[in-house]
Amino acid sequence: MRAPEPTIPDEAFAVLTEWLPANGDHARPLIALATVDVEGRPDSRSVLLSEFDRSGFFVHTDSRSRKVADVEAHPEVAFSIAWPADLRQLTVQGVARRASPEEEASAYARRSRYLQLLAWLNTPEFALLPTDEQEQSWAAFDAAHPDGTLTSPDTWLGFVIEPTRLTFWEGNPRAASRRTEYRSAADGTWSTATLPG
């Protein structure tokens, strides 16, 4: 039986809504997503944070990607996002679970036209084409599928990262930096700690 989804505590969620762009904002932030493969080797890559809510953080990708294989082998993941100009960083540890088909379709519909096309064309075969052939194939596919007519390909999937730890780092050029950490316990309760920067 699946454990209940964690609910991010009010205080932490308020900070998330202050630091992260609203889900309706077209410009999505990049996060550095870390995974571990089947042999225990770590990997990291930048992915778009599609959206977030009280249950967690949503990312979407191609089912044939290495990160999907990693998540399926070890669903425990972590990510970070930094705002250097604001002296802020968010680090999240959690468990990645498949998003619902409805959420996946909704996220695809909100992607830019370029990313919608990329979800269809970003195949191993396409990667091997010379640049001029890629551009011709891309233009032909784009012309054959007017804006608003594409739905997500079968290879499109999403994960929700249900957090077990949230760490908010805030720098201060006039004093020490500060980390505020929220940890989820097995019973679904959360503890809070203020840590040295």
Average predicted confidence as pLDDT:
94
Low-confidence stretches: none
Molecular shape: elongated
Structural class by helix and strand composition: alpha+beta
Q: Tell how many strands the DSSP assignment holds.
A: 9
Distance between the termini: 39 Å
The radius of gyration is 19 Å
Helix share bin: 25-40%
Order of helices and strands: HEEEEHEEHHHHEEE
Number of helices: 6
Strand content: 35-45%
State the major sheet: 9 strands, antiparallel
Q: In words, what does this structure look like?
A:
It is a single chain. The chain is an alpha+beta fold. It has six helices and nine strands. 28% of the residues lie in helices and 37% in strands. Strands 1, 2, 3, 4, 5, 6, 7, 8 and 9 form a nine-stranded antiparallel sheet that branches. It is elongated, with a radius of gyration of 19 Å.
Q: Top keywords for this entry?
A:
197 residues; alpha+beta; nine-stranded antiparallel sheet; 6 helices
Question: Nutshell version of this structure?
Answer:
With 197 residues, this protein is an alpha+beta fold. The protein is 28% helix and 37% strand.
List the topology elements.
Elements: H1 10-19, E1 30-36, E2 42-48, E3 51-53, E4 56-62, H2 66-73, E5 76-83, E6 88-98, H3 101-110, H4 113-121, H5 124-128, H6 131-144, E7 156-170, E8 178-184, E9 190-196
Antiparallel strand pairs: 1-2, 1-5, 3-4, 4-7, 5-6, 6-7, 7-8, 8-9
